[in-house]
Amino acid sequence: MDVFFWSEIILLTYFAYVATYSAVFSLAGRMYVVKTGNLSSAKNYKFAVFIPAYKEDGVIIDVAKQSLNQNYTNYEVIVIADSLQKRTLDRLRELPIKIIEVSFEKSTKVKALNAALAQYDNQYDYAVILDADNIMEPNFISTLNKIHQLGYQSIQGRRAAKNIDTTMAFLDGLSEEINNHIMCKGSTALGLSSSLKGSGMSFNYKLLKQNLGEMDSIGGFDRELELRLANKGYKSIYVDNAIIYDEKVSNTKVFENQRKRWISSQFYYLSEYFQVGMFAFFKGQLALFNSTILRNIQLPRLLNLGLLVIFTLCSGLFSFWHSTLYIYWLAIAIITFGATLLAIPNEYYGKQLLQAIISLPKVFLKMFFLLFKLKGANKKFIHTPHTSNSTSKDS
Fold first, then answer.
1. Inter-residue contact 302 to 367 (CB < 8 Å)
2. CA 6 → CA 12, 333, 356, distances in Å?
3. What is the pLDDT of residue 283?
4. What pTM was estimated for this model as a whole?
5. Could you tell me if 34 and 147 are in contact, meaning their C-beta atoms sit under 8 angstroms apart?
6. With bands split at pLDDT 50, 70 and 90, how would you rate the model's confidence at 1?
7. Distance (Å, rounded) from C-alpha 196 to C-alpha 155?
8. Confidence band (pLDDT; 50, 70, 90) for 72?
9. What are phi and psi of 77, to 5 degrees?
10. What is the band of 143 on the pLDDT scale with cuts at 50, 70, 90?
11. Distance between terminal CA atoms of the chain?
């Protein structure tokens, strides 16, 4: 047995795990349902809708206006204005919303949210967190109100693509929907904790204020919040019909910066909570084990798919003159790609999907090289600029 054989065994074991995880959670996502019975809106909880806006002059006014168009009355919109221009602030003050101006030497979403939460002493029942580009569907808060009545304290809504007019934006939206299906629907269906996504989220106000007050995250605050809540026994539930529209990146450089931040925070919190996750496994706390380790130990999906294709092809080529495990690689590839296809919504199948697939090798290479640029990425704030206000999903 040489070193190449054992290296292949290690790689094969990892990708077998990825295939199994993807298949189980993708199949579970097909059985997803949130049972509300005949629940009516007997209680009208008071919601605070927090919109942190760091240098988002191009989108925040329209977003603030549209946030007032809810089929629900007992809520207030609070824009956290960080480094907004004076003319933007003047126009925001014309709207029936609250504005909190903040300024930091080094801005982060956690600092902005904590500054806002500190100004209100639990006068709200629940807090919604949006990004500065998010557009809520009209029934978003009324849906959250119903689900919170079931006793859930942490809810992740569905982030749907606001724009898929470019190949990059289409891929970003597709990735979001696959994650919705596997990491959110699948986890909820299996009784685990849904992945939190940073926006389109709703929490018990006191619970959010307490946990965010203990955090100083720079990148990936949603990951840390999910892990903190799970560690305290709070499962986040995914609600597919609570929809917000989220702008997808069209610029390659913005895409790279965004993914660098996400990948860096993923591995940072894997390291920080690895011991907690292992203890959770031995205590039978599967929701916490899944959130801390099972989910975070995987490379991003596109990297997994790209590397799996490469290793399967290499194994097939070497099988002509050297005994390999090619049949296992092929089986793992089929399962992984099958699970991924199962997670794609029907509306994403079409000509644009084929165009996106053609562009995948180029995107894969960009993401692969990002792995060598992660140093320090979780220690600085990487802002994703937004420009679009359209909720159109047409191409």
1. yes
2. 10, 20, 35
3. 94
4. 0.89
5. yes
6. low
7. 8
8. very high
9. -95, 130
10. very high
11. 53
Cα distance between residue 216 and residue 358, in whole Å? 40
List all residues 6 or more positions away from 253 whose beta carbon is below 8 Å from its beta carbon. none
- Tokens matching residue 13: 């074991």
Is-contact 244 130, C-beta < 8 A? yes
336/62 Cα distance (integer angstroms): 41
How many whole angstroms separate alpha carbon 134 and alpha carbon 168?
19
- pLDDT tens by residue, 243-268: 999 888 776 777 777 777 778 888 88
Q: Which residue reads 């168009």 in tokens?
A: 69
Cα–Cα distance, 33 to 254 (Å, whole number): 35
Whether the CA torsion 225, 226, 229, 232 is positive or negative: it is negative
CA 291/CA 184 separation, integer angstroms: 11
Cβ-based neighbour number of residue 282 at 10 Å = 8
User: How far from 192 is each of 237, 289, 310, CA to CA, in Å?
Assistant: 8, 9, 33
Of residues 211 and 363, more confidently modeled: 211
Tokens matching residue 180? 């919705």
The DSSP bridge partners found for residue 196 are: none
Among 239, 245, 212, 219, which residue's Cα sits nearest to residue 67?
245
